[in-house]
Specification:
The protein is α+β, with helices and mostly antiparallel strands. 22% of the residues lie in helices and 25% in strands. It is built from four helices and ten strands, in the order H-E-E-E-E-H-E-E-E-H-E-E-H-E. The strands form three sheets. It has a five-stranded mixed sheet, with helices on one face. The protein has a three-stranded antiparallel sheet with strand order 2-1-5, covered by helices on one side. A two-stranded antiparallel sheet has the order 3-4. A hairpin with a 7-residue loop joins strand 1 (49-54) and strand 2 (62-66). The longest helix has 19 residues, at 2-20. It starts with a helix and ends in a 5-residue tail after the last strand.
């Protein structure tokens, strides 16, 4: 009885999500402000937007600073610094180290405004998702998390023939079969696997 009830609730939820979505695919949105589960572990990437605060030095602080395509940023007294590939904490420490020439014991805080993340850490969902997209990877991101962001399946989806394409050892691809319909409609949590950075979830179209 519990399994049937869960399946009905899950089906109703996905129905609402699909009904509210636009059928057009969406590219990665650089203004996406969804916060990773652990912001301190987030890896900064080109296209992210940061705010940098230097304690008791407002003239050195910067808001809404974009990370350039080359992964670098420019702030007062530090005209060129690599930001991509670092966590906000690491970047703050690096900026503070540079500012020591000009400021006594600087304290620097880096805050994230919008999240894109490095290209090789993005997770993509393509095919018959209601809203195909690329999203920043975060710790313990699951297939269900991805499908919630992608607003479920289209009515043409062959959900149980979905696959995750993952980069394996030595650059070889690993294919993981996922029964998305069983997960979303029947509540089969055994299909709710964790995603890895760079994974692509492919949802094929039904043959009829």
């Amino acid at each position: 009885m519990k399994r049937v009830t869960f399946g009905i609730v899950a089906l109703a939820l996905i129905g609402v999500l699909v009904g509210a979505c636009s059928p057009a695919p969406k590219a990665l949105d650089p203004t996406n402000t969804s916060t990773p589960a652990t912001a301190s572990d987030y890896i900064i990437g080109p296209g992210d937007t940061l705010s940098i605060f230097v304690y008791q030095a407002a003239d050195l602080s910067v808001t809404a600073l974009p990370v350039r395509p080359d992964g670098r940023i420019s702030v007062p007294l530090v005209p060129d610094m690599m930001a991509a590939g670092k966590t906000p904490t690491q970047l703050g420490e690096d900026i503070a180290e540079k500012l020591k020439k000009y400021v006594k014991d600087p304290t620097v805080t880096v805050m994230m405004h919008s999240f894109v993340g490095p290209f090789d850490r993005q997770v993509r969902v393509i095919g018959e998702a209601a809203d195909p997209m690329a999203i920043p990877y975060r710790d313990h991101l699951t297939v269900l998390d991805v499908m919630i962001e992608a607003k479920g399946l289209t009515k043409y989806a062959a959900g149980n023939r979905s696959v995750i394409v993952r980069r394996g050892a030595n650059g070889q691809q690993e294919i993981i079969h996922i029964k998305l319909s069983s997960l979303l409609k029947d509540g089969d949590v055994s299909q709710n696997v964790e995603m890895k950075p760079g994974d692509t979830l492919i949802i094929p179209q039904s043959w009829f």
